[in-house]
Structure formats: structure tokens, C-alpha cells
Write a structure and sequence with these properties.
Helix content is 55%, strand content 7%. It contains eight helices and four strands; from the N terminus they run E-H-E-H-E-E-H-H-H-H-H-H. A four-stranded mixed beta sheet has the order 2-1-3-4, with helices on one face. It starts with a strand and ends in an 18-residue tail after the last helix.
């Protein structure tokens, strides 16, 4: 049985969880409190971060994009990165956008400040960073709306790792209730379609001890 070491509100871990479920692959979830720096976990990934996927033969893979590329190569159906070179390039461009630009401008400023600091005992959130996250998210939701006005899904006509990555980040922020959906109907409609996929429903059942999600979080109709 595959084992995925993860943290509940890590977008990278959520991305891998959805990819595994889209592929129809069985796996066991194990929460890994990376701040404990367990020797057994560091032996699997010396970087000490999650996600880490351990295959049935004991092979350990780390890094969300490395894991997802591996899964798409070894289990090609359904394809999540695409079959044509230009399509794959566009998926990877958008994955980089959300894992890089969106993460730095929004996720870290909201989830990082409001949740991870508390878990790590690093003090109160930086109010300036939180304000920046709230301001920056509008640009990204507008961009999602721009893409979905021209395409069925973010990278083209088929659901892809680009959609999974964007939704993984937004789901962590939506858990906190910090996504201004009412001001971005196109992005909301796209996210509703993602939420309705069987692969995504497991994420909607997450409940971090001591920090329950907002009431609308698991509601497919918001």
C-alpha cells in the first residue's frame, strides 16, 4: 500500500492527494508533523518537508511536482499534464504560477500567517502580511476568471494538474473563509466544478483539530 506523508492544510500535499485519487490509486494518509524532525522521516526525505509518497516497493518520492510527474508517467490515464508538448507546457506554466506567485503573494500571507505560525508556535500573525494576502488574491481570482472565459478548464479543454494546483491552494484559504467568492463569480463557478469532482471531496472532509473549517467549506453550492 502506498503511503502519503502530509499536512492537512499544505497545498502541495493536497495536490498530490487529488492527483492520486484522479488516477484511482489506493493510498494511506499519514500526518507528518515536520517540526518534530523525526529521524525515520528524515531518512525518507532529508529536506524534512512534505509531501512524501512511499510506493509499495518502498521507493520514496518527495516534492509535489516530482510526485505528480511520476504518477502521470507511470499511470498515464487519465492524463493530468497532457499529451501534446504545447499543452504540457501550459499546464506546467500554470502550476508554476500557483505554486510560486500565488503561494508567495496569497497562501503564505494568509494560511502561513494565520495557521502555520500558530502550529509552529511562532507568535501572532503579521497583520501587514495578512492585508497583503487579502489584497493580492483579487488579482489571481481575476486571472482564473480570464482563463475560464476562454477555456473549459484553466489550461485547456481537459481537467489538469493546473486546476488541481490552483484549487489546492484556494481550498486552504477557503478553509479559513478568506476567499471573496462573491466578487469573482467566474472563479467561483470554476471552483464549484472542481469541488464536485469525486477526487476533491475527500479534501472537503478535512477538519484540523482545534481549527474547524468555515461553514460553507464543504458545501458544493457555497
Amino acid at each position: 500500500m502506498r503511503v502519503l506523508y502530509h499536512l492537512w492544510l499544505s497545498p502541495d500535499c493536497r495536490k498530490v492527494r487529488v492527483a492520486l485519487l484522479e488516477k484511482g490509486l489506493d493510498f494511506e494518509l499519514r500526518a507528518e508533523y515536520i517540526w518534530e524532525r523525526r529521524d525515520e522521516f528524515l531518512a525518507l526525505n532529508p529536506a524534512g518537508d512534505v509531501p512524501v509518497l512511499v510506493e509499495s516497493d518502498g521507493s520514496a518520492l518527495s516534492g509535489s511536482n516530482a510526485i505528480c510527474e511520476f504518477l502521470d508517467e507511470v499511470h498515464p490515464d487519465p492524463p493530468l499534464i497532457g499529451r501534446q508538448a504545447l499543452g504540457r507546457a501550459e499546464v506546467r506554466r500554470l502550476v508554476h504560477w500557483f505554486d510560486g506567485k500565488f503561494d508567495g503573494e496569497v497562501t503564505e500571507n494568509l494560511v502561513g500567517e494565520k495557521m502555520m505560525k500558530r502550529l509552529l508556535g511562532q507568535g501572532a500573525p503579521n497583520s501587514k502580511a495578512v492585508r497583503a494576502g487579502h489584497a493580492n488574491i483579487h488579482h489571481h481570482l481575476d486571472y482564473i476568471g480570464y482563463l475560464t472565459e476562454r477555456r473549459i478548464w484553466l489550461a485547456g479543454d481537459t481537467f489538469s494538474l493546473a486546476d488541481i494546483t490552483a484549487a489546492a491552494h484556494l481550498s486552504t484559504i477557503d478553509y479559513l473563509g478568506d476567499v471573496p467568492w462573491k466578487e469573482h463569480e467566474e472563479a467561483k463557478d470554476w471552483y464549484a466544478r472542481v469541488k464536485s469532482r469525486p477526487s476533491f471531496r475527500a479534501l472537503l472532509e478535512d477538519n484540523v483539530p482545534g481549527a474547524p473549517p468555515q461553514r460553507h467549506y464543504a458545501n458544493l453550492d457555497f
